[in-house]
Structures are given as C-alpha cells and as structure tokens.
C-alpha cells in the first residue's frame, strides 16, 4: 500500500497544470505515493488533458466548484493512504521533496501535520508569501510567518533551516495524517477559501497533536493564481474567515473582548482602504463583518482552552511590531 496521496485541486487550471504538474510527476516516487487531481467542476479541458498526458494520475471529478475547503473535503473522503499532501496547482516540487515530510512524521508521532520550506517561484532566493517557513498568529488573530511579515518577504539565507513547531502550516503544501484530517472535521466548508488551513491547524492543536515546518523539504509556489492580491473578494474572505476562526476556536469569554478589539482594528483598515482609493476593498470589510454576524450563529460550541496562551508568538501585536517598532523580519521580533 502506498503511504501518501498528493492531492491537487484544480478549477479551470489547465495552464497551471501544464506548467507545474510535470515536476510533481517527475519528483514524486510512484512506489511511495499516488498523484490525485480533484477537479472542482471545471468547464475547460483540464480533465481530458490530464488523462491524455498523464494517465497515471488519478482524477476525482466534482460536479461544481466547492472552493478550496469543500473541494479538498470531498477529495480526502476518497483517499485511503495514511498521509495526504494538499498541494496547490501552482507549486513546483523539487527532487526528494516528499521523503523528509514522511520521515519526520514517521519519527514524530506527535506531529499531526507539517509543511516544507515554501519559496517564491518567480524570485527563487526569497520565501513565498503564503507560508514561507511556517506560520503563527498574533494576539488579534493576524497571521504572519517565519520569513514573511505582512508584505515584507525575506531572502532565504538558511536562517530557518531547522525543523520547528509552528501554529499553522500553509495550505499551499500541507502534509497531514489523513485520518486526523477526518477526525478534526476537515476544512470548514463555510470558509470556501482563505484561512481554512489556519482554522484546521488550530483544531489539530486542540486535539493534542502538533504542527511543524520541515525545511529539509523545499517547494516553489507561484501564489495568487486563483484570487489575485487585494481583490475585494479576497479581502472579504480573509476578513470574514479570520473573524469566524477566532469565534469558533477561542473560549467564548475570551473571544468576545478580542472580537470587539478586532472590530476597531478592522475599522482602521476600512478607512485605510478608503483613503487610498480602494473603495471595493473597504466595502468588502463591511460585507465581511455583516456575513460574520450571520455565519457565527452556526457555531454553537467553543473550546475551553485558549491555545494562544501556549504560544509566545501569539502574545505579540504584530501590527505594532511591524509598523511602529519597524521589526520587519521574524528573526528580529
């Protein structure tokens, strides 16, 4: 039996598949792993192209676009290997990329999920925005990474080459125990896309497992291939999903005051967008908060444990560190 299923979610993405699938096929050992493309109801010829060019790749066709969260939930329901890699369709993998991830989890039973070092496909000496060398969140729920804080991305000089425990692993290349994915509920379908991997990792941590970055594995991520940077749609999903994530994963007594503070901070972000002429993004924040007030009613149970108190990195106000103290690199925090 194979150990790993490398699962790529596709939606009308034949150009990305043409560019990135060859590296996955070339550098993923067939005796160890299967490659699966889950198609999110594409209307282009993605499936036909895969079946012709790479008949060894398994295709799971879905009837419609269920988003990142819903698509992967349906794909992993059809996976029976002990491990799964949730790999974005715009990721180039490297020789030997899979073995360090498998070996680490085999040697560390406490590891529920992990990620490789994620670098930029276009600027290959730099980390990539979505995950870099492992993620954390600050005390207000804002995500940041080893190697990336807000828009500042560090060059990779080997400064994060040691495996480390992190708060969240990037959904661009998320290596996870398949059964744990199911036991913790998988991705939250309501998120559709963005923040769903942080929400899942939070639940994995609540289950008693840990999350790691394993930089001995390295991949290159194009990024922003589905939703480009700072579109109103992306702004809406990021703000709405971040609020939902905090609401559902914090004890209610601690979540309420935090969410009030977030309302103040998000109001500041609203005016920043407005003053810089990005009216669509400003309005997206209002829509995000309105949607949050409706969607939060679906979550009726909150945990008793505040995991943020167990991570020193979560005691920071990353906005103050970055904009006021000018601490732009993770290693300078």
From TrEMBL:
It holds the Pfam family Glycos_transf_2. It comes from the Bacteria. Keywords: Glycosyltransferase, Transferase. Residues 5-145 form the Glycosyltransferase 2-like domain. Gene3D superfamilies: Spore Coat Polysaccharide Biosynthesis Protein SpsA, Chain A. GO terms for molecular function: glycosyltransferase activity. The keyword Glycosyltransferase applies. Belongs to the glycosyltransferase 2 family. This is Glycosyltransferase family 2 protein. It comes from Candidatus Gallibacteroides avistercoris.
């Amino acid at each position: 039996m194979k150990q790993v299923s490398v699962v790529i979610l596709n939606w009308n993405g034949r150009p990305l598949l043409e560019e990135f699938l060859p590296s996955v096929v070339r550098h993923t050992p067939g005796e160890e792993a299967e490659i699966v493309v889950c198609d999110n109801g594409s209307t282009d010829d993605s499936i036909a192209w895969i079946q012709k060019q790479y008949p060894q790749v398994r295709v799971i066709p879905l009837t419609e676009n269920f988003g990142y969260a819903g698509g992967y939930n349906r794909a992993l329901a059809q996976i029976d290997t002990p491990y799964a890699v949730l790999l974005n369709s715009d990721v180039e993998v490297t020789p030997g990329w899979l073995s360090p991830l498998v070996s680490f989890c085999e040697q560390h039973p406490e590891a529920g999920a992990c990620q490789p070092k994620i670098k930029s496909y276009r600027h290959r000496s730099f980390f990539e925005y979505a995950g870099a060398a492992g993620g954390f969140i600050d005390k207000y729920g804002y995500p940041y990474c080893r190697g990336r804080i807000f828009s500042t991305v560090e060059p990779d000089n080997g400064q994060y080459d040691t495996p480390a425990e992190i708060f969240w692993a990037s959904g661009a290349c998320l290596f996870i125990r398949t059964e744990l994915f199911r036991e913790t509920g998988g991705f939250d379908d309501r998120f559709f896309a963005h923040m769903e991997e942080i929400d899942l990792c939070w639940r994995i941590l609540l289950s008693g497992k840990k999350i790691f970055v394993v930089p001995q594995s390295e991949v290159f991520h194009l990024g922003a291939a589905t939703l480009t940077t700072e579109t109103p749609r992306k702004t809406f999903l990021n703000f709405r999903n971040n609020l939902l994530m905090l609401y559902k994963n914090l004890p209610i007594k601690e979540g309420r005051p935090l969410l009030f503070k977030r309302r103040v901070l998000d109001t500041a972000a609203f005016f920043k967008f407005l003053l810089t002429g990005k009216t669509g993004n400003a309005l997206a924040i209002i829509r995000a908060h309105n949607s949050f007030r409706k969607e939060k009613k679906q979550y009726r149970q909150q945990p008793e444990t505040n995991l943020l108190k167990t991570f020193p990195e979560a005691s920071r106000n990353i906005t103050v560190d970055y904009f006021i103290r000018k601490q732009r690199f993770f290693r300078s925090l």
